[in-house]
Every structure is written in C-alpha cells, then in structure tokens.
Amino acid sequence: MNFGFIGAGNMVSAIVKGMTVGTKSYEGNCIYITSKSGVTAKELAKTCSAHFCETAEEVVSYSNVVVLGVKPHILAEVLPNIKQAIQKKNPLIISIAAGKTLEYLASFLAEKTPIVRVMPNINGKIGASTTGICKNDFVTKEQFQIAKEMFATIGSVAEISEEQFSIFSVIGGASVAFAYLYIDALARAGLKAGMSKKQALEITAQTVLGSAKMVLESGEHPYALIDQVCSPGGTTIEGICALQQNGFENTLVKAFDAVLEKDKKIGEKK
Question: Is 95 helix (H, G, I), strand (E, B) or coil?
C-alpha cells in the first residue's frame, strides 16, 4: 500500500511525520511527496525516508491513496491536471482542504471516484490532533479504515456527517487557535502581576491540559466542575463573574459564528 501527498505544508508534514517518525506505523519507502516549489517536499521526504516526486501526476502513478494537501483555492488548479492520472490508477482520494465538500471535489474527477474528506488540526505535530472524517458512497469499508488508521497516527479520529463538517472545522480545527490565545492571554496577565512569562505559560498550559482531561474523564458537566471550584464569597467566583460581565461566552459564540461563515464562503467559491 503506497501513500501519495500533493503539497508539503505544515499539516502534510505533521501527517507524514506521524505516520513514519512519530508512531513508526508506516515505512517511508511507501510514501511519495511533491510540492509546488519542490523544496518542502524534498526536505520532508529526506526527514521521513520517503520518495520525492517532481510532479503530482508522478505521485498519483505510484499511490493507492492520494492526499490533497494544497490550499482550498489551489484545488481547482491542481485537480484538472491529475484527473486522467487518477482515473487510470483509481486511488482513494483524501482531501484536507477546509470548506471544500465531497461534491465539490467529485466535480473535478471521474464518476464514482472514492473520496474521503478529513479535517485534522495543527496539534497533529505532536500527535494530539482532533480529526474529523467523512466519505462519499464510493469509498469501501477497507478504504475508510485505511484513512482512519492514517490519521490515528496524529491523534484521535471522529466520524462526522458532512452536514456537520463546517461545525467540526470550528470546534475541532480553528478552536485550537482560540485555546492558544486564551493560554497566552492568561500567561501575560501572570507576567503583568509579576511572574515570569515562561513560568506563567507553563502553569497555564498544564492547567488547561488538566481541565480538558477532567471534562473528558470525569463525566461531569463543565458547569458542575465550575461550581466545585467556586466557593461562596471566594476568589474564583469573582473571576467567573468578571468573565461573564465582559462577554466571555458571547465573544466565543461570535468567534464560532465568524469561522463558520468563512468556512461556508470558502465552500461556495469555485
């Protein structure tokens, strides 16, 4: 089983490294990579003992699974050029492009091409991605399992209906940046109060990590956990009230809506 990657940016790099260097689940010898300039693909291929290819057509010719790792607006340029190669080889096509639906991808390819849509996030660089996945009707059970196993090398994988994929792109994709912003803001507040930024950042990140584990493993609702931390007349409830009075929750909902709207606009562009 050979895997091809068209594009070699941060996300593709995380996936290939997760498959080979991170989990050692796949041999680099079964991976073929290309990129527009060739520079990033060559570096990634060297790091993971994979094959560098000069063209996307060459990648397709070697691969049973082809991952489209280019930006969404580049797909309309790339797909027509490899349509014949895909039709000849009939590989499983996997797209990680935000906003681009299975129907959109299929419009560039031969009828009945098996297509999987995937949305990983940047935490895949450390094997901690939350990845959403869906497929069209021409993907076999075996092919879908192959796709899920690939992305399990960089974190957890959740099957999502395509109707809810835009929602997933916010809470499973863009929200990592929200979390980074929260962590940095809290650490900067610690810096303002007199603690070193490095120490404040480490403490904040560990606290967020622990809080996430608590929600996942305790089975308790987040608000029930909030109540456990807030004692009558205590310090924490003052902070909670300040966050609510200043629109913390409402701002998050607005951020969610903004990302969702942008995702849908990207999907509408041809």
Answer: strand
Q: Which among 256, 18, 261, 1 is positioned nearest to 118, based on CA atoms?
A: 18
* Alpha-carbon gap, residue 29 to 256, rounded angstroms: 41
Report the C-alpha gap between 96 and 132 in whole angstroms.
10
> Are 56 and 78 within 8 A, CB to CB?
yes
Could you give the CA distance from residue 72 to residue 84 in angstroms, rounded to a whole number?
21
List all residues 6 or more positions away from 116 whose beta carbon is below 8 Å from its beta carbon.
Answer: 92, 93, 94, 95, 133, 134, 135, 136, 139, 143, 144, 147
The span from the CA of 34 to the CA of 55, in Å, is: 6
Question: Residues 15-60: pLDDT tens digits?
Answer: 999 999 999 999 999 999 999 999 999 999 999 999 999 999 999 9
Alpha-carbon distance of 193 to 133, in angstroms, equals 43
Per the structure block, which two tokens stand in for 8? 């070699």
- CA 208 to mean position of chain CA atoms: 20
C-alpha to C-alpha distance for 13 and 125, rounded to whole angstroms: 8
Task: State pLDDT tens for residues 105-123.
Answer: 999 999 999 999 999 999 9
Q: List Cα–Cα distances, 11 to 89, 110, 128, in angstroms.
A: 25, 27, 13
pLDDT bin (cut points 50, 70, 90) of residue 268 is confident
| In the block, residue with structure tokens 């021409």 | 138
